[in-house]
Design a protein that fits this description.
Keywords: TPR repeat. This is SGNH hydrolase-type esterase domain-containing protein. InterPro entries: SGNH_hydro_sf, TPR-like_helical_dom_sf, TPR_rpt. This protein has about 600 residues and is α/β, with parallel strands linked by helices. It has helices at about 1-15, 80, 90-105, 120-130, 165-175, 175-190, 205, 220-240, 270-280, 285-300, 310-320, 330-335, 355-370, 385-390, 395-410, 430-435, 445-455, 460-475, 480-490, 495-505, 510-525, 525-535, 545-565, 570-585, 585-600, and strands spanning about 25-30, 35-40, 60-65, 70-75, 110-115, 140, 245-250, 325. The strands form 2 sheets. It has a 5-stranded parallel sheet with strand order 5-4-6-7-8, with helices on both faces. A 3-stranded antiparallel sheet has the order 1-2-3, with no helix packed on it. Helix 15 (about 395-410) crosses helix 16. The N and C termini lie far apart (about 105 Å).
Amino acid sequence: MALPVVLLLVIEAVLRLCNYGYNTALFVKDPDDQTSWVMNPDASAKFFSNPINATKGNHERFKIQKEPNTFRVFVLGESTTAGYPYMHNGSFHRWLQYRLMHTFPERKFEIINVSLTAVNSYTVLDFGKQVINFKPDAVLVYTGHNEYYGALGIGSTSGISGSRFWVQTVLKLRELKLVQALTRLIYNIQQLGNKPTDTRENLMKRMAATQEIKYGSVEYHKGIDQFRQNMDELCQLYSDKKIPLLISNLVSNEKDLKPFISGAGQLSANTAYQAASNVYGTGNYPLAKTSFKKASDYDLLRFRAPGKLNAIIEQLGRQYPGVYIANTRKIFEEHSPHGILGSETLLEHVHPNIYGYALMSEAFYQAMHSSKIIRPKPENEMSFKLLLKQMPVTRVDSLYGAYQIMMLKVGWPFNTPIPNNFKRGDTEEEKIAGALSVDRITWADAVDQLFKYDLKSNNKTGALKATEAMLLENPDNVNYYIYAGRLNFELGNKPEAFLYFAKAYQLQPSLKNAQNNYLLCLKVDEPEKALTYLALMRSYDIPAAQLDEIEAQINQLINLKQQLKNEPLNSSLNQQIAAYYHRLNADEAASIYQHTSDNNGK
């Protein structure tokens, strides 16, 4: 027995030395920045039997050495959690990131989304165990819709027969290079004489092996039990570690999506859906709501989570200290006609539209607030209304999402042809979104093209939105903060300009950034704040006498402004203040006082 074991160990060692196979770790060092981690592009490989179906996640770097004053959040889940179909800034975690950045400008937020398409609670549990080692301040979870057809699901083409213990054992074995080699060999043999996987088919079709899972059946309950056990283990782990875990309940389209596959008799999804529609038409909305939920539960093709999963999620929140519920469903109901979920917030069966993702971020924000994970000051807090107004989701993002859903619905199980009268428009945004939707350009290229077009068109508001979009994608790139600060200043948005220039200095405390902030403070008539950055400039190679002279002028300016409060119509005081601002190269502020002086002299 010893010799075969030794032989296997030798083979494993040789394969590792040859760097065969894939690394199963969730994070690897960023090739472009060895001081940061990024999500491993092969992190999903061990969950999928067919490597072609393995999905890849975001490239959101975070520091290996967690910096002081950093609040680090990991986000776990499936395609909805990743932000499909918009991705990038359409995702709820970017809405949350933007809001937190504005509400707590003095803090640094790292929100790292490790969600993947076509996975379920097995992957969430596995990733959840790993992120504990990376010093999270909180972990956010949204999962459940892929419990049957996601990787390792009971009805999935990547399913594994056997108990939950056996599934987890296989996952551990797949981390071995020898097992990876054998798995690859078996896969290649299976492909001999078979047609290659048709990647033109959408992932929904490629992942669904058992297309009919009856309500109340053994398979139906296996999916529910799988979810309960995986999430129970995750919650127990985080509760023991005293790391806040926020789990959202689930939303899906109930009113405006007919069942995919219906049975007959008492469990007919079509019958329940038609009855719900009829009752809705009569105005009996409470009964309609119950009937729509029943139709969703009876749907044999289980791309929408059973209602039972929400009950499990609620129970987990009651059972485990430190586990909090983000009540996304409640917020969606509050923003849906008669409290019934439909196309007002959802694009197809489970994925929110842009407004829906904003609502989802609101649910997690409220949960973080009510659990005291965050404690915003009322005077600094960005309201949800302001978030909706300012969030840098561009029209290209919106159009790209619409095109993606249109193409998704052409395939199974929707089988909805593109309307004959559909014609893509000729606006610049539509051209860019069209190129992005067929992978002719990257998202970053699309935003760059939009930025240049807006600048050329003198659309500074659009250019600002594109700049902020890139800032959220690259939160450690100081240049985007400087550009955003300048554009906000030119647009007259003083608080936003202050925020971005201050963030630039936080990221890169250089003389140039201190000077930018000092000058901005003067230009917007805030000389007291300018003194703060002038003091920072003393640590750089500038003659002390020069800074002393500037400080004296600013102090004189502050004194004159104090006198002006008592004599607001004093033309001489206004002229003196204007003169000081001119000498300090703050002509914008000088013009305010010069204008006042001229008017008072008339």
